[in-house]
Design brief:
Blueprint lengths: L1 H25 L11 H21 L2 H12 L4 H38 L2 H21 L6 H25 L1
GO biological process, one term: microtubule-based movement
Protein name: DYH5 protein
GO molecular function, one term: dynein light intermediate chain binding
Amino acid sequence: TEVTEKLEEVIMIWIKQIRRVLVKSDQMRREADDVGPSAELEHWKMRMSMFNSLLEEIKSSRVKKIISILQAARSKTLRQWKELDNNITIFANEAKDNVRYLYTLDKFFGPFAMASPETMMEHVPGLMNTICMIYCISPHYNTSECLTSLLLKITNQMIKTCKTHLCEG
């Protein structure tokens, strides 16, 4: 029982730490007003990396041993642990899917940044079709919040490209 109590203390510390990470990742993002669409992809890549690292850690042999000891002892802390484990898996899958879908837009981001207003407009139909596909297919990136954030960043990039073109001309 002494070993079980010590292991439960360790698990509770991990639970608190993981909850802090989850709360922090769920807070609103603060970005500059003129940030472009590449920032959206970078945000989801960082989230994917963070949650994949967490998943690797909780699937490590050291953690698995502690969990199996607590399972044998029928510890009540395991309910909280399993819930967190499930949430981390959900968040990791969401980030992975969003990165995969946003990568399909990445081919448009470069031309948008480098193009003239005329050539930029040639890319808009393909970009919009790809965004529509993502909105229809993605299990996670199909909310008005995600779409608004993405479209705002694309608009920012278009404005920045036009400003650059005006200043050069």
